[in-house]
Structures are given as structure tokens and as C-alpha cells.
Amino acid sequence: EEQVGLIDQLLMYYLLWLDGHTIVQTIFCCLYLQDPARLLKTVPAVGAFVDALLICCKKARDAICAALVYDDEDFLPTMFNVDLEACVFSSVPAEVAKRLEAERSRLSKAGGSVAEALACRLE
């Protein structure tokens, strides 16, 4: 249940970031994202989700930077010791998609309401 709550919280932070808040005060206020490789390796479903979330953040950042509609502090995360290149398992989109699918499959086979809720969020 805690994993479901964590994913929901990260989704909320992502939407707040897209709404105009800084990435440091939203997504990266989650302590798990301070060192995702170390903190999330043992939680494969959340780790796969975080890899996908970070890829989405990079893609959104690239689109916003290309449109030139941002404040500097929003898109200079290194000023705040935030690493957008961090990952748990991989930062390659194809590999992340495979891991998400593998985790969804594993959770679907496990059964139970929590596994089903996690699988739904990884979809």
C-alpha cells in the first residue's frame, strides 16, 4: 500500500511541476529521488515507475526549454544538486518500457488488490 501511495504522490508532484512550480519543490522533494539507484533498487515496481517518471521529466523539460517559456531556476536543477540524469535501473526509454511491462506482468500474476493497484499505475 505504501508503494501505491508513493507513486500517487509522485504523480501529484509531477502535475504540480507542470502547473508551474519548481521541480526541486515538487518532484525532487521526495527523498527517494535524492539517490534513486541506491534507495529504490530493492523496490522494483517503484524503481521502474521512477525511471519512467524521470524520462517524462526530461522530455517535458526539453519541450519547455525549446519553447523558451520558463524561469531559469526551474530548469537549472543542478543549482540545487538535483540530477535529472539519475535513474534506478536505466535511463533508456526502450529498456524502461520493457521493465515496466515485466513489472506489470509480475504484479498481475501475484494477484491481490495492492498488486492490482500497482500494476494499474505502471500501465
Summarize the structure.
This protein has 123 residues and is mainly alpha-helical.
Task: Describe the protein's architecture and organization.
The chain has 5 helices and no strands. Helix 1 runs parallel beside helix 5, helix 3 runs antiparallel to helix 4 and helix 4 packs antiparallel against helix 5. It has 123 residues and is mainly alpha-helical. 60% of the residues lie in helices and 0% in strands.
Low-confidence stretches: none
Q: What proportion of the residues form beta strands (DSSP E)?
A: under 5%
What order do the helices and strands follow?
HHHHH
Helix percentage: 55-70%
> Strand pairing plus helix content: what structural class?
mainly alpha
Q: On the 0-100 scale, what is the average pLDDT? A: 86
Q: Which outline best applies?
A: elongated
Distance between the termini: 17 Å
Quick one: biggest sheet?
none
Report Rg.
15 Å
Determine the number of helices (DSSP H or I, runs of at least 4 residues): 5
Strand segment tally:
0
Layout of strands and helices, then pairs:
Blueprint: H1 2-18, H2 36-40, H3 44-67, H4 93-110, H5 113-122
Label this structure with key terms.
mainly alpha; 123 residues; 60% helix; elongated; 5 helices
